[in-house]
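Form 12-C: Joint structure prediction
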Amino acid sequence: MARDKSERILNLTLYLLSAGRFLSRDQIRVAVEGYAGLSDEAFERAFERDKDDLRLLGVPIRTGSNSALFDDELGYRIPRTDFELPPVEFTEAEARVMGVAAHVWQEAAMADSTVAAMAKLRAAGVDVDSARLAALAPTMTAEEPAFRALWQANAARRRVQFAYKTPDRVRTVEPWRVLSRNGVWYIVGRDVDKDQPRMFRLSRIVSEVTETGDDFVVEDDVDLDALTERFAPTEAHYTAILAIRPGRAPALRREGSPAVGVEAPDGYDAWTVPFRGLEQFSGVIRGAGVDVLVLEPAELRDAVVQGLRRMAVSS
Amino acid sequence: MTSAAQVRRILALVPYLQQHPGVAVADVAKVFKVTTRQLRADLRIMWFVGVGPGMLIDVDMDAVESEGVIHLSNAGFLSRPMRFTLDEALSLIVALQTVRGLTTGDLADVVDSAIAKLRRISHTDDTGVQVVVSSGTERVRATLAEAIENGRAVRLEYDGASRGATTEPLADPVRLMTRAGIGYLQAWNNDVAEWRTYRLDRIAAVTVTDQPVGVHPAPPDEDFDWLEHGTAVTLLLDREARWVAEYYPVKSARDTPEGLRVEMSVIDPGWLDALLLRLGGSAAAIEPEPAASARRSAQDVLDCYAAAGLLDPIPGG
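Section 2 - Result
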C-alpha cells in the first residue's frame, strides 16, 4: 500500500516534470501508473491527496492552461526550473565545513532535515566531506517543546498563540526571528495585542503553540538585527567599588580596574567594577563569598547583605 | 517509514546514483542514513518508476544482489535533485551559523561564503533565524585553533567554575566544541594528566608554548553525563530563583505549594555553596548538610562585613 503510493506519487512527479506543458486530468489519469484502474470518484480523491502530499514535500505543481484563448480546461505541470536545485559549486574548504555542519543538529526532526539537504547536495555532485574537521565539534539542541511549532510558523510566516509564563496569559505573536543565544532559544516578534516588538523565551511558554491561521509579513523598515540587539543584555551603566581579596574573583577584576586612593579593609584590595542590574550583580557578588565585599554604592551593599541575612537566619 | 520520506529520498537518490555510478550499497545507505534493507526497497520501487509506461528507470538488480553495487540507467529525466525545502535550507544554515561561532579568520570567511551560497540556491534571503554561540574572544579562539593545527601545548589563564582564583593549566588542545550553545575547548591537562573541557568564555588568555602535544588516551567522545555523577541535591526555588531550573541541568522539576522543587547533581560542594549564596535565600537546599553549609558561608561573609565596619545594625535587632 505505502509502496504503491510511493510509486504512484513518483510517477506523477516525473510525468508532470517531463512533459514541458500543462497536462489535463484525463491525460494524467491515463498515463500515470496507479490511477488507471480507479473509479472516477476514487481517482479524484487519490489525485487531490497526491497533489497535497507533493506540495508538502516542496514539489512545485503549477496549474494553468497551455492556451491563452481556451483556458476552460485546467492543466498541471512542474516547471523544471522551479523544481531543480540551481547549479552550485562549493570549494573544498566550504565542503569541509558543510561536513561539520551535517553533524551539528542533535534534535531529531532538524537532523532529518539536514540529512535530506546534504543528500540533495551530494546528488547535485557536491563532494561534501563526511569526515569531520577533527578540531571542530559543534552541536545544537532544541529541547523546548515549543521549538518545532515556532520554527515552522517562523518559516511559513504565520501568526501563533501561546500562553507565556502562566496559563492565563495568552499572547498572539508574529514570530519574526527564531534565535539561539548562548544555548537558549528565543523568538523575536510582534506581540499583536500590544502592537509592540517583544522577545520571548521558549522555555517559558507553558502551552501548546497553535497557529491562528493568519499570515504576516515583516515590514521592510524592521531592522531585525537592531531589534535583537535591543533585547540583548545592555552595556553596564553603574559603577561599584568592591573590596576583593588578592588574586581572587578573576572575572570581576578583569571587568574593572584598581580603585586609586580608596582604602580597603585588611586583606582586601579596592577595585572599581562596572555593572548593569543591581539584583543580578548583587547575586554575583554574594556568589563570590568572603572574597568580595561591596564598599559602594550603599544600595548594592544593602541588596547583598539582605540576601545574606535571609540565608543566615533560615532554618 | 512513511511514503513521504521515501518519495523525498528517492527523488534525491536517482540523481545521486547517476552522479556515482557503481557505488556500493552500504556507502549509499550511510549517506542517506537508512538501512541497506530500506535502500533495497527504494531501489525496487525505482524499477517501477518513470516518465510513462515503457520509460522506466533501469536498476541493475543483479549487480545489487551479487556485487552489492548500484548501476542506474534510463534516468536522465531526473538528473538534478529537488530544491531545498525551507526547513532543509534553514536547518543547514543554523548548523553553519553554529560552526561559525567556533571559527575565526579564514575559516570563518569560508563558513560565511558557504552560508551565502546556500541562501542563494534556496532563495532564503532569510534573517528569520540566528544563532549566537558563547565562545569567548576571537583572539582566544584564533590562538587555540592555531595551537591545535600545529600540535602545540598551550598555557591557559582560566577562571575556575566555582568561586576562586585563576588557574594556569598547561594543556594539550584537541578540539573546540559546543554543548547547548556554549563553546568549549577539549584539552589534556598536563598538570593533572586528565582530559578536561574549558569554557571558552572563561579563558582569559592563551599562550602557545614550544612544547609539542603528547600522546594521550582517546578523549571521551560522548557527552559526559553530569547527571550520572556527583551527589543528588534537592532545591526548593522561589519565583526569583526559577531560572536555575532553566540554566543548569536538572534531573527533575515539579511545582509544589512551597515552590519549584528540583533535583540536581552536584560534583563540587563549593559550587553549590556559591549558587545558594548567589540566590540569597530565594532557594533552599532540602538536605540538611548543604543547607547548613550555605548558612555558615552566609554568616562568614556577614562577619567579614562586620569586621570591616560596613554593616548597619540589624533592623529591629
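Section 3 - Comments
Residues 6 and 69 of chain A are 36 Å apart (CA to CA). The first strand of chain A starts at residue 23 and ends at 24.
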